[in-house]
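Project standup — Tuesday

K.O.: blocked on the structure for the chain from last sprint. Re-posting the sequence here as requested.
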Amino acid sequence: MQGRLSPMIQNKIQSFPKKNWKNEFKLANKLGLSFIEWTLDYKDLSKNPIFLKDDVNYIKKLCKTHSIKLRSLTGDCFMQKPFWKEKFNSKLIDDLKKIVIASKNIGIKYIIVPLVDNGGLNNKSQENKLVKICSNLKNFLKKNKVKLLFESDFEPIRLKKFIQRFDNDAYGINYDLGNSAGMGYDLNSEFKNYGKYIDNIHIKDRVLNGTTVRLGKGNANFDNLFFNLKKYKYKKILIFQTARAKNNKDVEEIKINIIFIKKYLNKFYD
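H.V.: unblocked you, prediction finished:
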């Protein structure tokens, strides 16, 4: 996750690292990572490098130089300004379209729409509004070969019913392991109900009803996760959205988490 290899900004767990984003490509390569998931905040949205021609060319150069791919983008901007909650939302919808086009231009295939925290769906009216707006963008998304992935705090059966309201060619699910563990959801039930709709996964660990912690220190069941990934033949991306380290030692923290995950990769994919 972009920003996890940079010092925290104003004590925010996650935000676009505007002063250090270029350096993260080199750091990710040194750690043996293959992907960076881009992060978009609503503040200074139009100044983000993915919208600026010179920066886009530089992003492509960094990807090639350091063997890093950009395939997913997490839209914290949507959580900060949910277009399904705002009364006058035409600009926010236009912003979404611009993000889709910018994503296409740098090879991003998946845009994550967080339906959690400030972006959570509080009632059926908000859900219906979201479905209507997004469904109207179906052909636009297909034309640009970009999918919207919803990250939700719905329990498994409800999330299955929700995602079935969409065209699977243009919409899917971003599965957040830590959030599900923190809410006490049964991982096997989650994959049984909507595993086939998962296109991207955030690797995270959380204590039940608590905060994000180092991998293996919370309630996430990694054996069940990788058993299901193999069962459902998941061959897409795993993104570290792990707990931040103290004293800005996030690179060292990522190293620890990589070793932890490699044990499971070797166990289930040897």
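K.O.: great, moving the ticket to review. Residues 250-268 form the longest helix (19 residues). DSSP finds eleven helices and nine strands in the chain.
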